[in-house]
Amino acid sequence: MEFGHVPVLYREVLEGLDIKSGGVYIDGTLGGAGHASGICERLGSEGWLIGIDRDSDAIEAAGKRLEGFGCRKTLVQSNYSEVKLVKDELGVSRVDGALLDLGVSSFQLDNPQRGFSYMHDAPLDMRMDARDALTAEDIINGYSREDLAKIISEYGEERWAARIAQFIEKERAKKRITSTFELVDIIKAAIPAQARREGPHPAKRTFQAIRIEVNGELEKLEAAVSDFIDILSPGGRLAVISFHSLEDRIVKNVIAKRLDPCTCPPEFPVCVCGKKPDIKKITKKPVTAGGKELSENPRARSAKLRIVEKL
Ligand SMILES: C[S@@+](CC[C@H](N)C(=O)[O-])C[C@H]1O[C@@H](n2cnc3c(N)ncnc32)[C@H](O)[C@@H]1O
Q1: Tens digit of pLDDT for each residue in 24-76?
Q2: 160-173 core/surface letters (b: 16 or more CB in 10 A; e: else)
């Protein structure tokens, strides 16, 4: 299968990272190396690209894509939350920039076997890393109705979460739910017809929620963004692209804390805790896609890019 993923905010990421020829860059969400190939090109033969992805298919596709590019490359199948370990194991002494382009790739969504998409009938899997134990099927059949409702409500921001969880509970009592289309039918039955006709595909929010739970996408994000900032050398930049408000809020909060780490009570006239900012913002506001990109790549619609520089 072709890795048909179009990188989002490509020019904005590459310009914003201000790539230093000969530098060391880490792409924590390598995917099909769309952004990474641009980084590699700018790094030149003296530069080093370290690509991390938890999906072995992505590592393989990225390896092929990067073959024609001259920088030094090291691709690692790992979680980006392990970035400090990866950096230490590789003996990296400085990091000039890093990228996190969060979420799933079109390659994962469009692969009928992976179970990420409500558009293809497939086993309920949704694991980015096939070595992980927990699948979407385990969650749908094993979590309590209350937990399902909570996840679908919080991670999917789905107003019909309680009804969807109730319908899942009723159906799985008859028969184990094993395929994406079975789940889609249950979601459709749970959402009233009028609401189903409005907005995106009725299963979109629930599928997003289950995917986030399967892959623990939000659990480690806060610590990971902080770790990526920690490992940057002075002047090094981190670019983060988020695709929904939950991710963006976490990224925004980490950045806000690093910009204003002071823990003194607000009534103190001067800071006594001594904690100083260690980053500055490069993007004053999150960067979003322009009209041309939106017309060519619908995935860009919800993308928000934030870039910071280490002091
Ligand atoms: C949006 S795609 C990145 C696309 C890439 N920038 C490109 O241009 O081809 C996100 C990628 O990050 C990977 N990913 C998501 N969460 C991850 C995590 N916690 N650790 C490592 N990789 C992760 C996914 O497997 C997916 O390949």
Answers
A1: 999 999 999 999 999 999 999 999 999 999 999 999 999 999 999 999 999 99
A2: bbbbbbebbbebbe
Pocket of ligand 1 (CB under 6 A): 5, 7, 29, 31-35, 52-55, 58, 79-81, 101, 103-105, 128
| CA-to-CA dists, residue 207 to 156, 178, 229, angstroms | 8, 14, 31
**Scanning the structure block, which residue is given the tokens 């009534």?**
267
Q: Give the structural domain span for 85.
A: 10-103+218-310
Same structural domain for residues 230 and 210? no
CATH number, residue 93: 3.40.50.150
Residue nearest to atom 22 of ligand 1 (CA): 53
Atom of ligand 1 nearest to the CA of 33: 9
Q: Say whether both 24 and 90 belong to one domain.
A: yes
- Residue 240 DSSP label: E
What is the pLDDT, as a whole number, of residue 298?
A: 87
Q: Return d(Cα 125, Cα 179) in angstroms, integer.
A: 9
Could you say which residues of the chain have pLDDT below 70? 1-4
* One-letter identity of residue 33: A
**Assigned domain for 304 exists:** yes
Predicted model pTM: 0.96
